[in-house]
Amino acid sequence: xxxxxxxxxxxxxxxxxxxxxxxxxxxxxxxxxxxxxxxxxxxxxxxxxxxxxxxxxxxxxxxxxxxxxxxxxxxxxxxxxxxxxxxxxxxxxxxxxxxxxxxxxxxxxxxxxxxxxxxxxxxxxxxxxxxxxxxxxxxxxxxxxxxxxxxxxxxxxxxxxxxxxxxxxxxxxxxxxxxxxxxxxxxxxxxxxxxxxxxxxxxxxxxxxxxxxxxxxxxxxxxxxxxxxxxxxxxxxxxxxxxxxxxxxxxxxxxxxxxxxxxxxxxxxxxxxxxxxxxxxxxxxxxxxxxxxxxxxxxxxxxxxxxxxxxxxxxxxxxxxxxxxxxxxxxxxxxxxxxxxxxxxxxxxxxxxxxxxxxxxxxxxxxxxxxxxxxxxxxxxxxxxxxxxxxxxxxxxxxxxxxxxxxxxxxxxxxxxxxxxxxxxxxxxxxxxxxxxxxxxxxxxxxxxxxxxxxxxxxxxxxxxxxxxxxxxxxxxxxxxxxxxxxxxxxxxxxxxxxxxxxxxxxxxxxxxxxxxxxxxxxxxxxxxxxxxxxxxxxxxxxxxxx
Length: 547
Ligand code: GLN
What we know:
The chain is an alpha/beta fold and 547 residues long. It is built from 19 helices and 25 strands.
């Protein structure tokens, strides 16, 4: 039976609960335990797949095709444990499952209520895989006191009550605001938020207190006394220059020890932190710097491309350089010259995206990279843009475009070099889609295998000819243009195993120009940088020596 750590937040949102959970997961692993991390989100969407990145940041995709919260990305990056469908749930999914059961008649005529039906559904979810790991870390999204969160808080209270004593603990993150006028850190909001938790029957075992200023000993004592938490379990959490310092910083403040103490695990196995020391060293002692432009649409909100930014950092760590990311809004040069906006970067990355806005600018970015020999990494939409650019400007298909944009405009303006994919093979069964399908959960999602051409750049980068990567797309480069494009020098160097779906393209006579239909950024880790990002940053370093 797993031990459970429930992680909640109070006072304000965006305190870094996801990161704290991920760092704690990494620390428990460093002590030899197996872990799994889960996110329970109170919002009513069934999953974040249909939400705009402006609403909710990036959508993280798991191997088994779930569209989840970006916190699952942090969990994977810190622990290396690949998340599954069953590691992410929202109120929307819980309610739809309860309502499905009601329609089926599973509740035998009973009145359906939040307690026990909704809370039971949540508890069943939390309990999945109970016998698989030593520790299950469950983060509750939002802040204590939110209306939507109540069924989740009630469910975790009951869950801990149902399990044997000592099997579950509660860790609560709060903020100590600093009043510069009086030069004081205030503990009152923390006291209130703990009171709020206590009023729903949850007594936190560990308090993690975010603060911009050092927390004096007497304030820690005060929090311990007023919040009824052991002093050693009040853990300060200060701002960090890099998120990858978090495991060492939390360890330094005694978080993992506090958690093990709360479970009465004694003596606790000593932690092995060499990996995190190495990560720290690579982050803090770079031997150079490269400047990379991310040419996208959601550039005001960095969370929209969270995993890409992290993967670039990992690529930098592998090459012992700092990667300075600059966000370039593609729409600015939809019309007009892209060059003034793109000169001076050592490499250009065009990320995934949806909809037509900004795509002409992205196509120009691909052209600029091709013509000027600047390293280019096109991800998903970024690959499609590179193919359209090649078709228009090299292969002479002047009207080349994507069906995605014609679909929006309701007219046929483009020759669909990129078309709406409606059938493909998953494992050994066929998947089909219709033009008017629901939007939610109907893309080509999750891990698929690709076969790489021997001797290609991408095979060299991976050091392999069979790879498995995560996908999230509805449109696809049309194989029927392969011959024409390859004759111009754009090689289709990675294909689905049945040879029907182009997965990777690369320019033969370019130092480093690769477009991939999948999302390599989702599998990169600080301690295991993704080969494409390692190779891309290496190419940027080489390019920086030329400029
Ligand atoms: N909009 C494109 C598609 O659906 C690209 C998706 C993406 O970049 N994730 O195929």
